[in-house]
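Box 3.1 A note on notation
Throughout this textbook, protein chains are presented in two layers. The first layer is the amino acid sequence; the second is a token string describing backbone geometry. Keep the layers aligned when reading.
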Amino acid sequence: MAHMTMGAEGLRSVPALLARNASQYGTSPAYREKEYGIWQSWTWADTAKEVEALALGLLNLGVNEGDFIAIIGRNRPYLYWSMVAAQCVGAIPVPLYQDAVAEEMEYVLDHCGARFAIVSDQEQVDKVIEVQDRLHQFEHMIYLDPRGLRKYDHTRLHQFSHVQDQGRAAYDEFINELQARSSKLDYDSTCVMLYTSGTTGKPKGVVLSNRNIIETAKASSEFDHLKANDEVLAYLPMAWVGDFIFSIGQAYWTGFCVNCPESPETMMTDLREIAPSYYFAPPRVFETQLTQIMIRMEDSGAFKKKTFDYFMKHARKVGPAILDGHPVSAIDRLKYKLGEVMVYGPLKNALGFSDVRVGYTAGEAIGPEIFDFYRSLGINLKQLYGQTEASVFITQQPDGEVRSDTVGVPSPGVEIRIADNGEVFYRSPGVFVEYYKNAESTADTKDSEGWVATGDAGFIEEATGHLRIIDRAKDVGAMADGAMFAPKYVENKLKFYPNILEAVVFGAGRDRCCAFINIDLTAVGNWAERNNIAYASYQELAGHKQVLDTIQAHIEEVNASIAQDEMLSGCQVHRFLVLHKELDADDGELTRTRKVRRKIIGEKFEDLVNALYDGSTSVYTETEVTYEDGRKGKIKATLEIRDAKVVPASNQRMAAE
């Protein structure tokens, strides 16, 4: 094993990659985790031992080949080892979203028929216990953190470390069986099953094979020259395909180190301490960080703010060109170097981005202004376009060819074609095997030649070969006059403003567009405190006259910008209201990955949509909400509806001329 080269035969499963890493990179760090404020570290050799002990323990508990093992909790080395240990014994790991409520978990556990679950703590144990009577095949649960679980019935409940101890004790009894099962694994064995957080209908179980994960990890690692000495921060949900490809696929292929933060609250501190060289975040994370920077700058002294504004203006002018290696004058370079010392360097350091060599964002389109802000600081932030069904990668942006309005060129090994209606199709070694127990949906999504329908509308630019995504194919519609309606394009422009957290634009089949807005409580609350404006709740702040004035100004700026795009100028927002509650995944309004469920929101707030279109200036509404402890309640509010200024089509042509 020690002499195997990278592409050697035999590296056809994740456990085989682990064996190679233990021999080739044995003493290099594979995992780090911060616990009680201290970083713990495990080498690849340590990892192989931990995984082996757990795998033997699973055999001791009676795990069969083909069993499904649910894995629930925040990103921790132990849970990544659980996924690999499951694979070692021929079982299939099924990571679940840790913030899912018990009923959502019940659906997944029942659908895949999980016999075992490995969970992080008492909170997750309680959720599974709540539904386990309705799961006929469920047998054993293993937990990591014993706090609060001492008095629970332990007939079918086991502590993680005890399962490992029992595995080590039964080494002689089970080691031959473990090796036999591991060596049977090949490219066609199932590597993982991930449930999509579909914006419509029940989640579907996406079956991904070792071929899907390893071939995709190999191609994408080579595309960005990822190396064994790279550092990555694992903080995104383990049930999400992106985390699986980065923290298992690419990590095991290249041998780099996966760092797990202590908690969501300490994430930013931990990010600064690790200073990853390879970093991924959905647009929302970059938006939140930018909002925090802007809030801090508003609070700083006049000199500091002036310096910041001056150098950021320069960075926006020349930063991206310097990053991409385009020619820039000597004086501009010098000024940029000074900015690096005064502003960009300290700022990147505060964000934890000092060492980022490759940064990616995906999942949603990112606002161009946000994207350009980070690139102007010299951070190599790029976009990729992917799906669970593709093992993530469909397109990526090559270094030096990065723009905010495209998602790049086809990833290595991926073919793309655009259907007559504008829908994007792809085919690649990463294309999923099937939707579990759902042949009908599999056939709808993937044809006999392996082409997959993305559900997104887009086109390939002739000059550059880059793909541009306009919107979800089902959301791209037409206005009443036949003009193109692309809501997400407008929503992303609105979300660039730190005060706007979420936007939902309506307009399909209608004569004009209207919008719901969610304010960002952190940014707007900060503004309110600075201006001595007292407020008791989100709802009160959302209805404040000055807040509405500010939001209206943002919408009018966006309208002016949209008016310049001939294809989409009809999407300007004519009327809007600020919602009385934050859109929430627990209320079914967003998916677990925070995508807007447009149809559900339209139906749920039908009274508000009607009021936007019937000329009302205000509307009274009552909405049922779910509190964190599961109780239901009602929020009542009277919302003000405002008109926003739009740029007429004739003006925009004159402006262009």
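The first strand starts at residue 29 and ends at 35. Residues 297 and 309 are 9 Å apart (CA to CA).
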